[in-house]
Design brief:
The complex is a heterodimer of chains A (259) and B (229). Chain A contains six helices and no strands. Chain A is mainly α and 259 residues long. The termini of chain A are close together. Classes of the chains: A mainly alpha (259), B mainly alpha (229).
Chain lengths: 259, 229
């Protein structure tokens, strides 16, 4: 006797939708594409080459926004972690929000480091220098990879959330400590004046505007991808919860088929 | 029982286990010694070694810290002792203080031995005027390292596939201690002509670190050791 396997009737409404898009993400996505178009136009076209760095300055239109978004993402992770831990309901949504933001932050930080190294080679002549900002960024990058590894340690969703929230808040504590200690360390060494200890670049006019467009474009991209990733995580958690029920039903149906 | 009494019990238990099993003496100290020898192979010239001796001492300390932390929590997870303590309702802050203290004592012994090794192997010189700075560095740095080690040790203890996470979590966090302790010891020893007075600001950094992670660690330890059974 054959029977079709039963699927639980109470299927959450969100998973009946075809994807994770909503009006909000569509608006964000279109705005992001438009601003990215502006960035390409201004960054590669309309803005002038710098007097000293020439065209290498155009890397900054990507490098500075990715750095800004990476740090923003980590602050959002810390805020999400705090809201999970200290909120009354300990809502898992905040935990997923924090985790998604950390994932995106790590990617953007990698982009920051790579674009920064390329720019540094062209302007400073070296890929890396040991100043407070770069060193803190590199260590933070590694720390958040550790945070993501802690998220993968397993256990129930609530346990994962609690562990990650605590580690997420501890990593934020690290930022000022590392930055300050490296700053103290590097102030002991008087490097040659070619390598500016801060590596700052002064900009004005159209170049500053392109940078601003870049920041807006990348922030929109961050928000768009954050919403999508959080929803996908929610679906992954739901799959986890229902997955066992489905597997049991399937095995039961197999057994009935064979009998 | 008061938190203080529990902490003392946990610390004395850990130290008694160490005295009976002698893992620090027989395994960790030789490992640290071998590391110091390896540094000499890698760095070749003796004047370079003398110049970087403080840094190498603290690097060897950090690597040995990882081993010590894993040992500190291996003795708990083997019989499910940490879970039993937690389920019995023992204050996790007290457990944290106790284990951190025991770890600090072992670390301090390790650091003294490594300093002696640096004097013997690398030709480092300990002027009498630098002894106070040296001792203060040892105390503050050890407190910071023990706090961070116990905290993340609790998180990564238990199931296999977790211990490998410990180095990745601990090393970025203790970077300020490495920077501060190395600079302070350089001042104390007068390496590279660094004046004694320049070491004390680093003690400030190390103290801030120790206090921040001592407090933060005590609060965070409880949630982190909660386990899936």
């Amino acid at each position: 006797m054959t029977t079709t396997p039963t699927i639980p009737a109470e299927q959450p409404a969100a998973t009946r939708r075809a994807g994770t898009g909503t009006t909000a993400t569509r608006v964000l996505g279109i705005a992001m594409v438009v601003t990215m178009g502006w960035l390409v136009a201004f960054g590669l076209g309309f803005s002038p080459a710098d007097r000293d760095q020439e065209d290498a300055v155009r890397i900054l239109y990507v490098h500075v926004p990715t750095a800004w978004v990476a740090y923003l993402a980590f602050i959002v992770t810390a805020v999400g972690s705090a809201m999970y831990l200290f909120g009354k309901k300990h809502s898992l949504g905040f935990d997923r929000f924090a985790g998604a933001s950390a994932e995106i932050g790590v990617v953007f930080m990698a982009l920051t480091l790579v674009s920064g190294m390329l720019w540094g080679k062209l302007t400073w002549g070296v890929y890396w220098q040991w100043d407070a900002r770069l060193t803190t960024t590199a260590l933070l990058f590694v720390s958040y990879i550790g945070y993501l590894a802690v998220r993968g340690l397993g256990g129930s969703h609530q346990q994962r959330a609690k562990r990650s929230a605590v580690v997420g808040l501890l990593v934020v504590l690290e930022i000022p400590l590392v930055h300050f200690s490296v700053k103290m360390w590097r102030s002991l060494h008087q490097d040659a004046s070619v390598l500016d200890s801060e590596g700052d670049v002064s900009m004005d006019g159209l170049m500053l505007f392109s940078l601003f467009v870049g920041v807006v474009a990348f922030t929109l991209w961050y928000a768009w991808i954050l919403l999508h990733r959080t929803r996908v995580m929610a679906m992954e958690d739901m799959l986890d919860d229902h997955g066992l029920d489905r597997a049991l039903d399937a095995r039961r149906a197999e057994a009935e088929e064979q009998s | 029982m008061s938190r203080w009494q529990i902490a003392r019990l946990v610390a004395s238990k850990d130290l008694r286990i160490e005295r009976r099993s002698r893992v620090l003496m027989n395994q960790v100290l030789p490992f640290a010694g071998v590391t110091m020898v390896m540094f000499a192979f890698a760095l070749d010239a003796s004047n370079v070694l003398e110049r970087v001796a403080p840094g190498l001492v603290w690097l060897a300390t950090l690597f040995s810290l990882l081993v010590l932390v894993q040992r500190s929590f291996a003795i708990e997870s083997d019989d499910g002792a940490l879970d039993a303590l937690r389920v019995a309702g023992v204050d996790p802050v007290a457990i944290y203080w106790g284990k951190a203290f025991a770890l600090a004592v072992q670390l301090a012994v390790l650091e003294v031995v490594l300093l002696i090794a640096a004097v013997l192997l690398y030709g480092a010189d300990v002027p009498l005027g630098g002894i106070v700075l040296l001792a203060t560095t040892l105390v503050t740095a050890t407190c910071g390292l023990a706090s961070v080690g116990t905290l993340y040790g609790g998180l990564t203890a238990g199931f296999t596939g977790r211990e490998t996470l410990l180095p990745l979590l601990v090393l970025p966090v203790v970077a300020p201690v490495l920077i501060g302790a190395t600079r302070a010891v350089e001042s104390a020893l007068g390496t590279g002509g660094v004046a004694l007075s320049e070491g004390w600001p680093w003690i400030g950094l190390l103290s801030v670190f120790a206090v921040a992670f001592g407090a933060g660690g005590a609060l965070a330890f409880g949630p982190l050791i909660e386990e899936a059974t």
